[in-house]
Design the sequence.
């Protein structure tokens, strides 16, 4: 009996959070100690399960800055402050920052932390009446609650969970050091698993830009024909090339070889982008099934997404995988409220149903070529799972490794699979992303267009004045531009998403644009002093900023 092959990719990324010499948001560190180490390390319990991990270079860079103590984040600095010397302003900052996480799974299970949470609803009373020990316990609990399930096994972590309250200043500082130790294990653990052949590590462009929009912002019209055009048009293919080159170079620095695969930011592809990647030696990329459906039109069949397709660009061939949207989203959005065993069984039955569908439509020999691509965020959904999803992972990985009808493979292992004769050749990729097969999230709203126009104007000026700067000066300017091209700034513009620190992304984006003007000796336009985002006041309750793609 031929098995169905399953390729799972966990996308791990954070934008570059540095703002005025400090990481404004703590998500690299907190997801690092909760998710980025635990998920690959857990695979040691299941040596037969193969998985692929995507590491975004801006994430790797920030992990390194934490490890070397060259940069810290705002929450770290608020944690380091001695509780007995906190000012009222610092106390207010702590109350606003130290409950930004999932309450049901990361606060409520801990009596002391939950009581602090309840008492913090009246901030004025908390600031006036809390004891020094209250503040110290809160400083510890916010950082303690983020520890991943594997890291909690450590004797020091167990000490703090057992103690529960009355923490000391020394224990608080040691907890921050423990965070750094976990961060330092992430890439070595991944490297070891990659050397063992159990995982594959792929990469993304340096600062996670939407590559098709860098090459030509008008490409958004392929799927959004009535979308607003930028003024001036964004058309900087060299930026897309350089962001890809920088990502590959950073990967090589960490892993001593070139990546075979690339997850383009937000699964965003176009003909130009695939051509660039092919010329850079990238052998495979992945995107969403909606891109395949848009590209094939009437020739599309639902089973076609289960077959890697070799796309011929003008400068070479590249293999493209199209993720199963429904299966990926089940893990990301549905199973968190399920019993973990039931979720794993449901997923297995879906895999069997797909296997049978392929056999019914294309014959059993088609299984030799078929791969089910499962691709989703490797960080944001887990705090919505009980115990950070470890029970689901164990049941899921056990299911994948114990069934003869299922075989997990790395994406690069699928490169040599035969291409079935019935699969239509793709002569033209319809530009799109893994969100609805278009770029509406990043360029479809008035706020998005405003932000892009700010970026487009300053990018044009930088190019026109390039000869006025030394090589070093221009490199510093262009780095700021590349950071400002990152997808996350535009993700939070528009009405689609909300979070307690959403406005920080607007602040960072405008700060980068203002920096570019200042570096060119120009006064930033006055409008950059004003928020692009409109106030909505739709966010209620405490939760992480988690961005679920």
Sequence:
């Amino acid at each position: 009996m031929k098995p169905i092959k399953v390729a799972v990719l966990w996308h791990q990324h954070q934008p570059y959070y540095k703002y005025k010499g400090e990481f404004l948001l703590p998500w690299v560190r907190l997801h690092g100690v909760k998710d980025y180490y635990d998920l690959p390390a857990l695979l040691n319990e299941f040596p037969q399960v193969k998985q692929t991990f995507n590491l975004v270079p801006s994430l790797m860079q920030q992990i390194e800055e934490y490890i070397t103590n060259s940069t810290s984040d705002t929450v770290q600095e608020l944690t380091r402050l001695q509780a007995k010397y906190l000012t009222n302003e610092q106390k207010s900052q702590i109350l606003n920052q130290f409950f930004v996480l999932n309450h049901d799974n990361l606060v409520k299970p801990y009596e002391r932390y939950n009581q602090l949470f309840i008492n913090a609803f009246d901030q004025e009373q908390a600031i006036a009446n809390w004891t020094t020990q209250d503040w110290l316990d809160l400083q510890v609990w916010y950082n303690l609650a983020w520890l991943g399930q594997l890291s909690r096994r450590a004797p020091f972590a167990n000490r703090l969970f057992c103690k529960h309250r009355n923490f000391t200043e020394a224990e608080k500082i040691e907890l921050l050091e423990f965070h750094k130790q976990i961060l330092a294990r992430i890439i070595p653990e991944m490297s070891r698993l990659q050397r063992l052949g159990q995982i594959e590590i792929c990469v993304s462009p340096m600062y996670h830009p939407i590559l098709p929009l860098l090459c030509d912002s008008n490409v958004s019209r392929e799927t959004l024909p009535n979308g607003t055009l930028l003024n001036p048009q964004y058309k900087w293919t060299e930026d897309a090339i350089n962001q890809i080159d920088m990502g590959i170079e950073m990967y090589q620095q960490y892993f001593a070889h070139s990546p075979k695969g690339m997850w383009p930011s937000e699964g965003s592809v176009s003909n130009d982008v695939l051509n660039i990647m092919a010329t850079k030696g990238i052998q495979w990329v992945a995107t969403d099934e909606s891109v395949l459906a848009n590209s094939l039109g009437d020739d599309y069949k639902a089973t076609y997404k289960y077959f890697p397709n070799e796309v011929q660009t003008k400068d070479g061939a590249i293999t493209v995988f199209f993720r199963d949207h429904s299966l990926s989203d089940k893990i990301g959005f549905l199973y968190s409220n399920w019993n973990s065993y039931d979720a794993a069984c449901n997923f297995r039955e879906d895999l069997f149903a797909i296997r049978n569908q392929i056999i019914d439509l294309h014959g059993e020999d088609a299984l030799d070529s078929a791969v089910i691509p499962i691709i989703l965020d490797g960080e944001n959904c887990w705090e919505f799972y009980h115990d950070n999803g470890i029970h689901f992972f164990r049941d899921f990985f056990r299911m994948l490794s114990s069934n003869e009808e299922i075989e997990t493979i790395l994406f690069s292992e699928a490169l040599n699979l035969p291409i079935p004769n019935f699969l239509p050749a793709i002569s033209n990729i319809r530009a799109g992303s893994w969100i609805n097969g278009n770029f509406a999230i990043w360029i479809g709203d008035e706020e998005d267009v405003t932000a892009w126009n700010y970026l487009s104007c300053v990018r044009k000026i930088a190019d026109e004045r390039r000869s006025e700067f030394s090589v070093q000066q221009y490199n510093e300017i262009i780095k700021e531009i590349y950071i400002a091209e990152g997808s996350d700034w535009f993700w939070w513009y528009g009405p689609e998403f909300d979070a307690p620190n959403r406005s920080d992304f607007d602040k960072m984006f405008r700060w980068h644009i203002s920096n570019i003007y200042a570096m060119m000796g120009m006064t930033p336009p006055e409008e950059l002093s004003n928020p692009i985002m409109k106030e909505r006041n739709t966010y209620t309750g405490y939760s992480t900023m988690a961005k679920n793609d």
Remarks:
- The longest strand covers residues 4-12.
